[in-house]
Amino acid sequence: MNILGIWDGHDSGAALLVDGRLRFAVNEERLTRRKLEIAFPSRSIEMCLGRTGLRPDQIDLVAATTSDPAKTLGRLWPGSKERYYAVRRRKSAPGPLAGLTRAMKYRITEWRPGPISRSLSEAALKRQLARHGLTRAALRLVDHHAAHAAGAAWCSGFSECAVVTIDGLGDGLSSTISRFSNGRLHRLAASLARHSIGVFFEHVTTLLNMRELEDEGKVMALADYAAPIPDADNPLLPWVGVKDGVITTRWPGHALRRPLARVHWRYANEQFAYLAQRTVERAAVALARDAMRLTGSRRLALAGGVVSNVKATRHVRLLPEVDDLFIFPHMGDGGLALGAAVQAATDAHEPLRVELDRLDLGPAYEESEIAARLEAAGLRAVRAADLPCRVAELLADGRIAMWFQGGMEYGPRALGQRSVLARPDRADLRDRLNLALKRRVWYQPFCPSMLEHDAARLLADWAGGRNRAMTMAYKVADEHRPLLAGVISVDGTCRPQIVGDDDAGPLAELLRSARRRWGAGAVLNTSFNIHGEPLVCSPSDAIDVFLRSGADALAIGPFLVHRPG
Length: 565
Hints:
By secondary structure, the chain is of the alpha/beta class. Helix 3 packs parallel to helix 6 (115-130) and helix 9 packs across helix 11 (269-295). The longest helix is centred in the middle third of the chain and has 27 residues, at 269-295.
């Protein structure tokens, strides 16, 4: 079967399964250039079909997800979600209307789906799909958390495991625990949307004058700069409880903001962030422990937006009850299209072989197109047969290089396809990247990409594993911290990409060159974008960001471009 998965909400996108294999996946933001796009994924659908050579009438099944009243309202009246998008991304002026928009969002999204919302969602989706010629395909609506869980379970490589989903909310729930065995998911526990640690952390993010659903990573980073507060003195910890796999909060999500604001008034920003971060960590650990007990498994797969909190998932990984842990690399709602397709395939008894060993699942571009775009921009490019070595030389000299190679990454992390690279041992380069090029807050750490051989040496708690795509935090060995000075958090951890020692790709070759030059097969690797914009997708996007940034060089396809002037 040819199964097209789509998601038309926060970070919309599409994914295509052909005969049970993942052939292509992309998120709409990369194509429209609007960060965390919310519109129907029209361009993603067209690209899935175009890049795989399929016609609309060759699609057998379209899998969509989420049919709660809030999502249904957005499908029937797109202006409602555009209004919230403008408020959330600070594109709309503050005031009573913005406050009302946010309050309505938190109230309505707690409502569970029913027959009416489901029927209306199906009708709205069929109208949109018809515009793309997808009239022959059957439509399957998958539960929000079932889609999260299916992606995590099937992509984990586990034959059986516990599966935990934790996010803000969707289809009336905020978290679930399931057992995965014999190719099936069996839900054992679920938390109502009104009791959500994801929404709890969203409110904290907003109170710190950051953007919810986008800047939670900054809150996590800021928490590292607080003086530790004992759990006994943390006023937020009693607000969140977990029992038998079910989360409860003292107030429902829509009523949390005011009590949180009263606590925030008594604490400095970094202390408030610490209190909230610790609360999320404790809840995640309790939920994981319940999952292992309820399922009887020692393997765990995680998905959902809260799972992007690498400090919380590190605590989960270190639990004695957990022998092996997998984090779905596109853990937030942007991964729902793939999860919906996987769940629909399972329900249709379609054999599945979904592997995420490589995440270069987006568009790649021919050398001729890259050359034409460079010429049109008036840039002088040199074809470099030894491009990885040439770039390593530049990095060794303290330069910053933008790196555009192969198919675009699937998911939120730059993994050596659309990256900005620098030496990992220079704190001054980190500061230059943060303040001048990326234009983001100074306390947010960068991540390294490193060869697996070096990971075993540089990371104190790396023992191999499945989490190689910047989805997990590891402690840097004390004696090797100078080698990773530019990519280490103040708490001594980093969030690495692990590259196989025998990998034949250009990033692996660059890392081998790096080892010869500064003693570690590692580089600073951050996303190829300006802060607040999506990761670049096309050669035109890459050239535009290069010219607007302060980077010294651009390695794009086989070409090396130095900054003009």
